[in-house]
User: Which sequence fits this backbone?
């Protein structure tokens, strides 16, 4: 199986696509730009959802659901938003089909035309703030801390499985606050939740920072982002959190009476991550043999493969395997026993390596005699024969070790591929030859940002929160700068 | 709060609508026919989802996700399906908006017209079987046991919150099998899963049976249903499971090689339940004071309300309440402590009755002295003062008792409102005067079924699985019949 994968080094884009297809994560559908998320890929997304949902609830949020459709006129209400979002959208114009009079299937019924077209939500600020208008009268109604798990549609011309699709799944938080400060704190809280999730669940180190004005969400006062480095040296924006100020409250006339009896507009945030995270997970860790999944998100953490020649051996091994399986499950570990007898162990090994199962346990006749099993780690591909005594504890520790090791490895990769650059020539060389994160000075103007993008395809991924004050000169314009920003080519 | 509810007896439909609004479950949105599911309503749906998802996985199913859009031509492929589904659908015709030249917001860009219109899925058989075509070659690829949690759209002219909305949330299972028998078994398995869920989680007794040909899913060979009786004597179809035969496999040319090397079309099932279940839950149990939620689906199972006059009393009570809360949470019970000091206990009591919280615990100064609390059940409205000793166990038992009692009460209501009728006059009288389930003989023809519907608005809800063979005569035509079927007016 693994032999069908293109090598990462030969063609990274092809390797990624092969991997998504061969590992049975997703595929393109009959509808241009829309993917089918297959069960194995969806199981990863379910684990991402479960982890994030727990974190959202632990920070006081609740879930709700708003309509898929947004009246067209809503998009014109917030000036910046319309520029950013109202363009590449799916538009519903009719609500009925009828039989073709020539007997050729169905046609759109021209008499069933909507008075106002409906847009499939590309994001839900407008429809949600139109609801909040009726929910908020006084400071007592605040804060509202709502999240929504939903599908959204942005008509994309060039799509890639998980990374950019016309329909995708995501969550979008939409909160309403009585003060600017509270909303800013919420914006920060949620970018930190995303960063924690990326680092602790996805084993993916991220850089937290501010987006430049150019790269901000349409309608936001400030956008915070987490940026991760992929193995090909390109950046991937894995989540964003927006401080929306009073823009949407003003657009939808949402005012509240504060404690002093004064009327004011409500302060807002929104924040989201999507199925794109699955793409990030794949690209950050996987290798030429297939997926490498962090234990905390792997649909199957352990697979047990029996090595046998005779039916009698299989029976002995199966009994042992089932005991081990039960003890692992009791320890809260997800485990699968693959006793299919029409496939060779070597084929199974390759298949579970392709699928990125963190730990493989092989049991042969000699293991039965010796009370041992062979443990193979997917991250390092190391094998070890160990006693079955105390196995659940050992496996639990091993899963944690793998989780930590994957993070450490990704962190080292990022460190090895982050460059502090002070000249334009160095910048060009790094960007063209090897990619990676570049920390460099920038004069703070949109013009320079735009020129650098035109000439190198590199963008400012963010102004890192922890970027220290430092005198310097813009690598492009030579003008004075007080801080380094993070450049990279990106997905 | 409760005083704003219309009484059930005065106007059941208005009572239902008031309840959904006042209990903060859902509301109508700016988009005709689409609702906003508010956090409290969505929390009930999350509990429904979690319970069903566990049951689906325990029966071997996995989740996946297919596109929201279906190419128009797909609807013409299965003849019966097109008649049933291709009509009242939302149709996407364009994929871009642009700024109005007169500066009046945005307009649809006429140059961005799709070559083939896309339909928002009203159900996903077509797009899914179009995918299965590529997934299935041999019997080894079968069975496929996939479920999808998704939003769907059916353009409805008359909508009611939860019961009938243009967009709704649901799950749809789509399975593929090598034999007819296996598919029929799956169809049965899933209607039984739904019935178990309705009875054990929703405390809602249901009648399992076959739909008549008239009432079958468009494209199905057989449709199984679970039918529940609401408090106004109308039936509600709470879930369906369809044996699709080879209809969709033929429409999408999905063939497989069986063990003998012979090519055959694949056998299919599909099954679904939706946010309608929330409507059923409300209508089956609630009263003039508000919701009555079964403990297994209640977002909050226990609320603790302090009764105090002085700040000192509140502090003593709060300390006690927090101890109790911790011990209940440790026992896996969801509990809320409402220490808001700007609302009177009486207001809180009414509010939690409106919200259907199964058990209320009140703690006053005397309870602190006596080491007691007052427990109030939402289902019976009974109150009791009990010792705090062993409280978690007692509460756990009480929640189970409430769950069982709610089921028993609904079962009794159904028994009291189910009538074995042998004459047309009795039938008319029951249907007009009190409603309920009617078990009566029917001659098996679609004509009679249609006539009865026209004259009484009653339909055949199902032919119950357990309806015994019995000689009789059709209540309408007088022709011979071998079985009673279940009639009712319905939602």
Assistant:
């Amino acid at each position: 199986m693994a032999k069908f994968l293109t090598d990462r080094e030969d063609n990274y884009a092809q390797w990624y696509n092969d991997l998504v297809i061969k590992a049975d994560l997703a595929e393109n559908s009959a509808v241009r730009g829309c993917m089918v998320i297959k069960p194995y890929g969806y199981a990863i997304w379910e684990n991402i959802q479960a982890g994030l949902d727990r974190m959202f609830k632990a920070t006081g949020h609740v879930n709700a659901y708003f309509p898929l459709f947004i009246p067209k006129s809503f998009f014109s209400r917030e000036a910046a938003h319309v520029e950013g979002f109202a363009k590449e959208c799916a538009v519903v114009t009719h609500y009925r089909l009828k039989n073709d009079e020539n007997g050729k299937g169905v046609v759109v019924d021209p008499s069933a035309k909507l008075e106002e077209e409906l847009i499939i939500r590309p994001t839900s600020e407008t429809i949600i703030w139109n609801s909040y208008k009726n929910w908020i009268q006084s400071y007592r109604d605040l804060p509202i801390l709502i999240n929504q798990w939903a599908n959204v549609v942005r008509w994309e011309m060039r799509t890639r499985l998980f990374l950019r699709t016309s329909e995708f799944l995501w969550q979008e938080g939409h909160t309403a606050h009585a003060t600017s400060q509270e909303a800013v704190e919420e914006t920060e809280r949620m970018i930190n939740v995303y960063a924690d999730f990326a680092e602790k669940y996805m084993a993916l180190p991220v850089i937290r920072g501010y987006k430049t004005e150019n790269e901000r969400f349409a309608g936001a006062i400030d956008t915070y982002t987490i940026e991760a480095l992929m193995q090909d040296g390109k950046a991937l924006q894995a989540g964003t959190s927006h401080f929306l100020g009073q823009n949407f409250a003003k657009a939808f006339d949402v005012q509240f009476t504060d404690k002093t009896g004064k009327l004011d507009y409500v302060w807002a945030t929104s924040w989201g991550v999507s199925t794109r995270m699955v793409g990030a997970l794949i690209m950050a860790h996987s290798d030429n043999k297939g997926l490498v999944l962090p234990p905390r998100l792997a649909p199957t953490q352990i697979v047990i493969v029996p090595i046998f020649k005779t039916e009698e051996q299989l029976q002995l091994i199966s009994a042992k395997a089932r005991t081990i399986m039960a003890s692992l499950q009791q320890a809260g570990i997800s485990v699968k026993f693959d006793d299919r007898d029409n496939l060779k162990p070597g084929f199974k090994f390759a298949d579970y390596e392709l699928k990125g199962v963190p730990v493989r346990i092989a049991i042969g006749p000699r293991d039965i005699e010796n009370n041992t099993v062979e443990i193979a780690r997917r991250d390092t591909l190391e094998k070890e024969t160990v006693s079955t005594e105390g196995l659940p504890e050992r496996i639990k520790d091993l899963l944690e070790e793998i989780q930590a090791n994957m993070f450490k490895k990704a962190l080292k990769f990022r460190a090895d591929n982050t460059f502090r650059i002070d000249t334009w020539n160095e910048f060009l060389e790094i960007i063209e030859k090897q990619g990676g994160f570049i920390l460099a000075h920038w004069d703070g103007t949109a013009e320079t940002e735009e020129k650098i993008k035109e000439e190198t395809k590199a963008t400012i991924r963010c102004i890192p929160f922890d970027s220290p004050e430092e005198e310097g000169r813009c690598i492009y314009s030579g003008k004075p700068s007080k801080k380094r920003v993070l450049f990279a080519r990106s997905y």
Chain A touches chain B through 63 residues (CB under 8 Å). Chain A has three domains: 2-285, 302-405, 418-488. The mean pLDDT of chain A is 96. The longest helix of chain A spans residues 391-416.
